[in-house]
UniProtKB/TrEMBL annotation:
Keyword Lyase belongs to the record: yes
Protein name as it appears in the record: (-)-germacrene D synthase-like
Residue ranges occupied by any Terpene synthase metal-binding domain in the UniProt entry: 96-211, 249-328
Keyword annotations from UniProtKB, A to Z: Lyase, Magnesium, Metal-binding
GO molecular function: magnesium ion binding; terpene synthase activity
Superkingdom, taxonomy of origin: Eukaryota
Source organism (scientific name): Iris pallida
Length: 385
């Protein structure tokens, strides 16, 4: 699944291979592996989850090397203990802000937010970044719900203007739930600035502010003005850009050039493709919830209405657009400049998590199915000897 949009021969090869794999699905001993590959190709899977699922397969292989298997299990369990400590700290932070008690629409997605960021980077040296971005993700879930489900058009205009001004002190004219959110967000930004100060990269705070404005002021302002999301305008950079920038600033801050930061702020092609894919996949599996919203239509609903097509036809069209976005991401990833390889890897890993979380359902919104199983695999049960 590493093809791009201008490789018809490779597409033929993939179709040929898929056909053969479909016919081999029931053949032992590779039934599980084939089924997994057909459902989620390795290139589109979460690195940590793919490793967890493969270790038991490798253990049964005739080529299994005992010492290598033992090392893999030890490594997995060691990393898991680090991740468990991080998510425990994340829960403490969430309870201190008490958003659940004060915001009637708040969704407790601590485990889900952390799981998503764990898929972007899982290595032990990124512990600080992982925790901070998980907190950011959690706050962005609140922003999503304010815009998509709870706030009125008039309230959203006030909310957007407040972010544009970057003024979180003079909030007396806002509804109470928005004041509560801005209080939590101010605390988070203070924590970010403290970490930047420790790393000697406080001068990057300008970029953080500008990037943090993007979700609330670019696409969501447009949504307020039009009261609709057009498919051609559905690339929301709401989560990926701040994630990428915080990650780079926190870990590579001293070595980042102004050109690299400006490039990120310009919303490069791989970011657009990743965001398009996220919006479309989210709409594909959230259509029932979307229909309950009073002021937003999903890409699926828009396509059906504007083009006069059936739901089945609209789903097929959106899936085709998702496939095209994946190929655009592949092209950007394969042609990455060395100086931007690490940044493009973040976009790729973020998109992989979209594939994992929205493969069969919106498991971020409804976490009791696939999400619960995956979180349990990676964060609850260690590998047994």
């Amino acid at each position: 699944m590493l093809g791009t949009n201008d490789e018809p021969i490779l597409k033929e090869a993939m179709d040929f291979a898929r056909g053969h794999l479909e016919r081999m699905k029931g053949e032992e001993p590779r039934t599980a592996q084939i089924g997994r590959a057909l459902e989620t190709p390795f290139h589109r899977g979460m690195r940590r989850l793919e490793a967890r699922l493969y270790i038991p397969v490798y253990a049964k292989s005739k080529a299994c090397i005992a010492i290598l298997l033992e090392l893999a299990k030890l490594d997995f369990n060691h990393l898991q203990s680090i991740h468990q400590a991080e998510i425990q700290s994340f829960y403490v932070w969430s309870e201190e802000f008490s958003l659940m008690k004060h915001l009637p629409f708040y969704r407790d997605r601590v485990a889900e937010s952390y799981f998503w960021i764990l898929g972007v980077w899982f290595e032990p040296q990124y512990s600080t970044e992982r925790l901070l971005i998980s907190k950011l993700f959690n706050l962005m879930t609140v922003i999503d719900d304010i815009y998509d489900a709870y706030g009125t058009i008039e309230e959203l205009q006030l909310f957007t203007n407040q972010i544009e001004r970057w003024d979180f002190q003079n909030v007396d004219g806002l509804p109470e739930y928005m004041r509560i959110f801005f209080n939590a967000f101010t605390g988070f930004m203070t924590e970010i600035e403290e970490e930047l100060r420790k790393k000697g990269t406080l001068h990057h705070s300008h970029y953080i502010i500008e990037l943090s404005k993007l979700p609330g002021c670019c696409m969501d302002k447009h949504r307020i003005q039009t009261n609709i999301r057009r498919i051609s305008q559905c690339f929301t950079c709401d989560r990926w850009i701040p994630v990428a920038h915080f990650r780079l600033t926190m870990h590579y801050g001293k070595y980042l050039s102004k050109d690299t930061l400006d490039w990120l702020l310009s919303v490069p092609k791989i970011v657009k493709a990743s965001s398009i894919l996220f919006r479309l996949v989210d709409d594909l599996f959230s259509s029932e919830f979307e229909q309950q919203r009073k002021h937003l239509d999903s890409s699926l609903q828009i396509s059906m209405r504007d083009e006069g097509i059936t739901e089945q036809e609209a789903v097929a069209k959106l899936k085709s657009m998702v496939d095209k976005a994946w190929k655009d991401i592949n092209k950007e990833w394969l042609s990455s400049l060395p100086s931007r390889k690490h940044l493009n890897l973040l976009a790729l890993n973020y998109t992989r998590m979209v594939e994992v979380i929205y493969k069969h359902e919106d498991s971020y919104t409804n976490p009791d199915g696939h999400m619960k199983d995956n979180v349990t695999l990676l964060l609850v049960h260690p590998m047994e000897d």
